[in-house]
Amino acid sequence: MSKRILSIIAAVALTLFAGAASAQQLSLAQISAYLNQLQTAQGGFTQINADGTISTGQIYIKRPGRIRFEYNAPSEALVVAGGGQLAVFDARSNTGPERYPLSQTPLSIILQENVDLDRADMVTNVVSDGTTTTVTAQDPENPNYGSIQLVFTANPTELRQWIVTDDVGTETTVILNDLISGSVIRDVLFNIRAETRNRGN
Question: How does pLDDT run across 47-100, given as a tens digit for each residue?
């Protein structure tokens, strides 16, 4: 699977739907604090792909380092991050998942134990249009992995939209809906080995 596809998958991570916005620019410290307090969350997601197609599914988040995307039909794919790995399960394949180091995806920026957007060279741009604050971030040691735009509203701080730009300039937008934070989520959902056994791979 290409890094572009991995970037699309990463774009699904931690995109929260927000209501009315307030005309206030958020600081990087406020945004980092918001992401760090988001320990668990689950809900639905809608992914708008670069070619205009739309994918939907359910997302489960358990920071640090764990996330699960269950795609609805016709895709029925599954993406699981846990134990420092990211695994892509293809419903049409019986050869087991494709695995990648989580650190080589944009997910590593926001799934790490301590998110610090003030870290040198992590944030490349911050803009506000009076209703939202948009932060563009990348791995400062590996900018070739692509960048993530996080669009926030204030009062309360919420991440409204997530846009990933890959290494060739392709953009993918994702929105989450009905997200519930602070819910109890079982660790087994992020166990790649257990999922592989369950699927008979």
Answer: 898 999 899 999 999 999 999 999 999 888 899 999 999 999 987 777 789 999
Q: pLDDT for 105-161, tens place per residue?
A: 888 888 999 999 998 899 999 999 888 899 999 989 889 888 888 888 888 888 778
Dihedral sign for Cα atoms in the order 6, 195, 56, 185: negative
**Which has more confidence, 39 or 19?**
39
Alpha carbon distance 168, 91 (integer Å): 28
What is d(CA 99, CA 116) in angstroms, rounded to the nearest whole number? 27
Distance CA 21, CA 152 (A): 9
Whether the bond between 140 and the residue before it is cis, its omega within 30 degrees of 0, is no
Classify residue 132 by burial, with Cβ atoms within 10 Å: 0-12, 13-18, 19+: buried
Residue of 162, 136, 174 whose CA lies nearest to 49:
174
Q: What sections of the chain are H helices per DSSP?
A: 3-11, 28-37, 107-111, 192-198
Amino acid at residue number 164: V
Comparing 179 with 186, the larger pLDDT belongs to 186
Rounded CA-CA distance 69/86 in Å is 11
Q: Is 102 helix (H, G, I), strand (E, B) or coil?
A: helix
> Burial, 90: exposed, middle or buried (Cβ in 10 Å; 0-12, 13-18, 19+)?
middle
Widest CA span of the chain, in angstroms?
A: 52
